[in-house]
Amino acid sequence: MTNERNELLIKNDILTKQTDQFNQLQKIINETDGWLHSNFNFYFMSSTKKSWTESRRDCTEKGADLITINNREKQDFVTKITDKREFWIGVTDVEEEGRWKWVDGTNITSGFWASSGHITEPNGGRQENCAVTYLKKNPELIGWIDVDCNGAYQWICEKRFQP
Fold it and tell me: Pick the residue with more confidence: 154 or 8?
């Protein structure tokens, strides 16, 4: 009887955790109407343009942050959804020139900086400390470019689901 009781308690604990995860996911889905969903993450693409700081503020007010792109799968996803338009992403070297960091504080270990012929990004020095997605076919320049943080671009917010 004791073993059966212990097994039932363990199963009950597992079901309780799964129910909590489901409820958390349901809450996020309800809060993210109009957002894109991919790999349990949620993405909001703005239709207006703001500076990097204002864009990030908008994301945090939505319980999210500017998107981080730390693998090829996500870079391909962003390339697909941006449709040849520039969008702010969550990377900057404003704290220390040349040291690019994500909004979560982690350093970029590898990036998808644009490069074509004589153009290699990032190349803006102290005047360009934030980055946008970039997809132009003429000349072929695909990836990220560094730009002035006060420029006006659309942005992508990312809300991660952490079960």
Answer: 154
How far is 113 from 134, CA to CA, in rounded Å?
9
Distance in angstroms (rounded) separating the CA atoms of residues 130 and 92: 5
Indicate the class that CATH gives domain 35-160.
alpha beta
d(CA 113, CA 84): 15
Cα–Cα distance for residue pair 25/162, rounded to 1 Å: 9
Closest alpha carbon to 121 in 105, 139, 141, 107: 141
Contacts of residue 124, defined as CB under 8 A and 6 or more positions apart, other chains included, come to 146, 147, 148
Measure the CA–CA gap between 93 and 128, rounded to whole angstroms.
9
Range scoring the smallest mean pLDDT among 11-15, 26-30, 31-35: 26-30
Cβ proximity of 99 and 109 under 8 Å: no
| pLDDT of the residue at 46 | 94
Sorting pLDDT into bands at 50, 70 and 90, what band is 158? very high
